[in-house]
């Protein structure tokens, strides 16, 4: 039994795990793709003592490769960025599915640099690490150094593990971008429903009143009736104008405007005609901006629906924040409705369901005619959002 050899092996393994932990922490600090890639490149270069690196990704729509991130590219490539466009030997090998582990990692000659004389900083060879997610090709991580030596098994394991981690991180950031896009679409859908439910119906009613007034002008009826119709039309016009302004403000303004979620909910609770009782538990816990904005929008839409449709005398708004989850409860004492036949198009429940789902949570509804309505939104918190 060689205790010295075992101790050396354990020390190398601990160093490898410590390096992976450093890179993993960096990967978990951002959901922005460009920042994730740049951070990973810098960490890998520092851990392995390398100078230069770059990452190619496959465009999800076109399937073409593009330079997504780079670190300390040599002058020949900085001055001629077109040299980093299109295919090269390592990308051809990768996209053809012929890349064979270490045999290719150690001996790939960079075809983007091999024919150049000046401005290469001595770079000729690089290690190419394929990036995958669920077996799907994502791109390639390349690292290089002017004093390149054959890569060790330890560094090779580290690079391939980093490649696996980076593939997962790329997939995560893309899913996040998709969720943001879906949230934008959901917001547009909410405004479309709101315009249909309020502005369009209000303008239709206004048209009917003005047509009636116009018809009376051609008859022998007295002017009092015409004046009443015109006054009602003006009142309806003002109400619809105010509704239009509110919808535009909802679209343009930052929902929290620098406030905490409890403070923003307090301001929201004070806006409507029906009294809203707000109760907050655990409100000093930090929460990600994405979760806070999403919950604010849910509360905003739920309160708007309650003000318009519930016929309530009181609305209760409760926010409870724990290390594991956030619960938002909106309850009114209005007339309620049949829970077996929920009129989603009227009460905006489609939008509320969409918002809760985009936040990784769920919405539950309790209601019956004559007993009011309870909406409960539960959002489990992941490690990075606590």
Give me some keywords for this one.
386 residues; 2 domains; elongated; 5-stranded mixed β-sheet; Beta-Lactamase; 9 strands; alpha+beta
Explain how this protein is built.
The chain has 386 residues and is an alpha+beta fold. Helix content is 51%, strand content 17%. The strands form two sheets. It has a five-stranded mixed sheet with strand order 5-6-7-9-8. The two termini are 47 Å apart. The relative contact order is 0.07.
Structure at a glance:
This protein has 386 residues and is an alpha+beta fold.
Q: Tell me, rounded to a whole number, the average pLDDT.
A: 74
The radius of gyration computed from the alpha-carbon positions, rounded to a whole number of angstroms, is: 30 Å
Biggest β-sheet description: 5 strands, mixed
Given helix and strand content, the structural type is alpha+beta
Percent helix among the residues?
40-55%
**CATH class designation of the largest domain:** Alpha Beta
Show unreliable segments: none
Please name the fourth-level CATH homologous superfamily of the largest domain: GAF domain
> What's the CATH architecture of the largest domain?
2-Layer Sandwich
CATH fold assignment of the largest domain: Beta-Lactamase
Shape: elongated
Q: Tell me the strand order in the biggest sheet.
A: 5-6-7-9-8
Total discrete domains: 2
Counted by DSSP, the helix tally is 11
